[in-house]
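Worked example (supplementary).
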Amino acid sequence: MTKLKVLHADIGGCEGCAVTFLRAIPLIESIACAKTRYIGSDFKIEDCDIAFVTGSICINDVHALEMLKNIRSKAKVVVALGSCAALGGITRFCRGGQEPKPDHRVFQPLSSVIDVDFAIPGCPPPPQAVNALLIAYVKNVEFQLRLFKAVAKVKRLSGFDLLDDVVLPGLCVGCGACVLSCPTGALRLIDRRPELIVEKCIRCGTCYVRCPRASQILVRRFT
Amino acid sequence: MSLLPLSPKKPLGEYIGVYLSRAIDPEIRRQRVGSGGAITAFLCYLIDKNIIDGAVTVRRVRGLEGEVVVATTKKEVLEAAGDKWSIIPFTARLRDTIEEKGLKRIAVVGLPCQIQFLGQMRMFPLLESDFSERISLLISLFCLGTFANEVMLSYLRSKYGIKPSDITDIRLEGENLSIYHECGKISIPAREIVYHLQTGCLVCTDYTGVLSDISAGISENYLGYTVLIARNNRALELLNNARDEKYIELKEAPPSVIEEISLKARGKMERATYYATRLL
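After joint prediction of all chains, the assembly is encoded as:
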């Protein structure tokens, strides 16, 4: 079997997801040949099977916009890796005027600019997520990919959406999955139902994807 | 489209075998009414042979209330044995619990919703703090839904005059739900309590917990036995070993059992489709 040609590009954010991709390279070696700016000087955006893009897109950043469109035209499949790329994540709170790029003020998920095939939330997702996605893609395990296909079609998911879609309509059964999956401890169970500490929610969407009901709603609406 | 590997043609998901099983240890069997205590015995086997460090399960405290138990000895497993009628948000405290005790390989016994979450976490870890590599085995219990506690308790009090604090045990026996309380026992037809399920359970499609390694439940025609669904080779191998080591009896389930649980599973999927169009 020929190895998949995998490309990674980062267009902004904290680089945590880029580190995730770097750490994933040894894991995916047997099925993919990975290229990223971080490990080679000859890096350029070229034809590939799968492109992993990390970081959210600043709508005012012409350079990043062009790079993103270029990636879309050369990659067969584009994966938004991490919450910022998938959903905007914490960069949604950006208001401009901040160093080192004071002119950047509007950050959006990649799906606001290009078609994204799969989106993996997580802040940051672990390297195993990259590996698992590639394996599911190679083996074409459709049910495993469905959720990430659905995430690629939404623009935002957060603790707020979890409350709106699951807790307030009374669909929550109190399993505790959201509390366990929140990276910032923004959710806690009060009377067996999750409550959101709004200041702590970084809009990474992990709780929504992990909730048995919310993920069902997501797949139902978008696939 | 379903999030799970489930369809009306495959209401039990992917599996390699369905078995009838029960504990050999008479002490375990004595405690059990509905099922054969196979999971209890199987967990004892896993702990005795040091295949897992601990088993995460739920113990009923009083009435419908329960608490999380991480059983690391045979004695603790025996204490937690029994059917679980209330959902415990144990996943919320799971990470703390296994980290406090320093467990490296755990078996988790849970309901399909919890198994769905843990199964997804195992397939697709999304956080660095996910502890999927510590989960050695997922065991799901068959589930038709869990009670909305307050509604159920208030129903029992107003219609049957049972105080919540008097309830000692709740078991499904055939078509009836038996409520054991301090002054005896009453039986309620299972049909009557469907209205007291949690709303979220009405849209759930998963009867057996398709992302588990082993699913366990009962068949009404074979009371005294646990129905086990082995979903992968490793699970089957462990079950066979437990049989060889004389912890459990294990025999292939007759087609009628597979039909019976498939029918229930399909029923749950139909119910979910019906409610999902209105609720989601």
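Two points are worth noting when inspecting this output. Residues 56 and 70 of chain B are 4 Å apart (CA to CA). Chain B has two domains: 17-145+206-279, 147-196.
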